[in-house]
């Protein structure tokens, strides 16, 4: 090959390289007037930056550098030009403390965006202490919402002291959460770590969640959810439900929770339905290779859930079936380590216990069952009460 040919090839490759990189763009929020002083409301700067990221015809990143940025509220909307958009937060984004500003359903919301990546080792600080037990809001806002999203990734992000739910996932498909750290005091009310509803194919892996409520909650419409290597505590454990309260035919199915650890939680793995409920179903659920460390209720199905206390005599109409508990071991902080309070109207069916080994610091642990049909295989401590 002649030197002239080499030159032509190098020139063409150079053009390809330049054109490819010309499609990549970083939009720094400082360019839009954002101030990392911990006081200025940067909502407008963030949204203006996102507008340009979303419009950019190619790979684009909204960059939040190190520092503390107050944002009173923001909705980052799509659809965008192309899929390759990144929200890179290296700093701390702080929520407002004025109830006139924060009494909304949400604080930060991402919606109608396909292929979004959120990363950067940054922190969402909900500053919830100003609201817990003191607010006059109808409901407290969640920290971050994901609505109508597809094929998105959230990794290496922290959320602390949410006023309400930390991360709320609604009507999404194919979401991947990795290396997420969520924390709030164990006495903080209704601070679920991650809540999933009406969504499918959501994965949560290699994360630490400790809050005042459920570490992870899967409500109506949750399907094909995989939770792996999550450490939960403090909090109320990992919960499925509450089902059957507001809508007919609530369904949660194809849930797999594996290699998780629960430390000093109020519950371990919990499934709950309203006692006074509409028809629904929870099915094809597996809890596998779980470690409990002083969990109050390591294994619990509660189909008599009724916080108000006025419906305990009503039978749940939600069918619970095909639920497997395999290789669950560790310690219970209460004597009754397994509670299966199923519905007389819709008894639990297809419950499988395999190799359960839960000890109690005192007299031997025990089980309690109502209307629970299934089988027990291998080690059973406490002794199984399935029929």
Task: Describe this protein's structure.
With 387 residues, the chain is mostly beta strands. The protein folds into two domains: 24-178, Single-stranded right-handed beta-helix, Pectin lyase-like (Pectate Lyase C-like); 214-387, Single-stranded right-handed beta-helix, Pectin lyase-like (Pectate Lyase C-like). It is built from three helices and 31 strands. The strands form two sheets. The protein has a 20-stranded parallel sheet that branches. Strands 5-8-11-14-17-19-21-24-26-28-30 form an eleven-stranded parallel sheet. The model is unreliable at 1-22 (pLDDT under 50).
Brief descriptors of the model:
single chain; 387 residues; mainly beta; Pectate Lyase C-like; 2 domains; eleven-stranded parallel beta sheet; 3 helices; disordered N terminus
Précis, in short:
10% of the residues lie in helices and 51% in strands. The chain has three helices and 31 strands. The chain has a 20-stranded parallel β-sheet that branches. An eleven-stranded parallel β-sheet has the order 5-8-11-14-17-19-21-24-26-28-30.
Structural shape: elongated
Largest sheet: 20 strands, parallel
| Low-confidence segments | 1-22
Overall pLDDT confidence: 92
Can you tell me the CATH class of the largest domain? Mainly Beta
Q: Helices and strands: which structural class?
A: mainly beta
Family: Belongs to the glycosyl hydrolase 28 family.
Keywords: Cell wall, Cell wall biogenesis/degradation, Glycosidase, Hydrolase, Secreted, Signal
Subcellular location: Secreted, Cell wall
Organism: Solanum pennellii (Tomato)
């Amino acid at each position: 090959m002649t030197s002239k040919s080499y030159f032509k090839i190098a020139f063409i490759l150079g053009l390809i390289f330049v054109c490819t990189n010309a499609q990549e763009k970083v939009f720094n929020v400082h360019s839009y007037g954002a101030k990392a002083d911990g006081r200025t409301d940067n909502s407008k700067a963030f949204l203006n930056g996102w507008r340009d990221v979303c419009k950019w015809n190619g790979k684009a990143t909204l960059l939040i550098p190190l520092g503390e940025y107050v944002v009173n509220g923001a909705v980052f909307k799509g659809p965008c030009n192309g899929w390759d958009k990144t929200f890179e937060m290296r700093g701390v984004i702080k929520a407002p403390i004025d109830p006139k500003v924060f009494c909304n359903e949400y604080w930060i919301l991402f919606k109608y965006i396909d292929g979004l990546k959120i990363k950067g080792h940054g922190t969402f600080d909900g500053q919830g202490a100003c609201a817990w037990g003191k607010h006059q809001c109808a409901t407290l806002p969640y920290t971050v919402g994901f609505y109508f999203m597809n094929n998105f990734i959230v990794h290496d992000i922290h959320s602390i002291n949410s006023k309400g739910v930390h991360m709320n996932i609604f009507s999404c498909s194919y979401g991947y959460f990795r290396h997420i750290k969520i924390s709030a005091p164990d006495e903080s009310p209704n601070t679920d770590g991650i809540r999933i509803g009406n969504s499918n194919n959501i994965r949560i892996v290699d994360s630490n969640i400790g809050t005042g409520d459920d570490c992870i909650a899967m409500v109506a419409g949750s399907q094909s959810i995989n939770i792996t290597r999550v450490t939960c505590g403090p909090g109320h454990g990992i919960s499925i439900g509450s089902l059957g309260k507001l809508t007919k035919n609530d369904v949660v199915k194809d849930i797999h929770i594996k290699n998780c650890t629960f430390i000093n939680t109020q519950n371990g793995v919990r499934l709950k339905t309203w006692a006074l409920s509409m028809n629904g179903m929870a099915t094809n659920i597996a809890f596998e290779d779980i470690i409990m460390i002083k969990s109050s209720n390591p294994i619990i199905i509660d189909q008599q859930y009724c916080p108000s206390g006025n419906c305990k005599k009503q039978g749940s109409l939600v069918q619970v079936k095909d639920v497997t508990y395999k290789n669950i071991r560790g310690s219970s902080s209460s004597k009754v380590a397994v509670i299966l309070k199923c519905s007389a109207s819709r008894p639990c069916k297809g419950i499988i216990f395999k190799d359960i080994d839960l000890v109690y610091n005192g007299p031997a642990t025990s089980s309690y069952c109502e209307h629970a049909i299934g089988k027990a295989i291998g080690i059973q401590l406490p002794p199984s009460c399935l029929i």
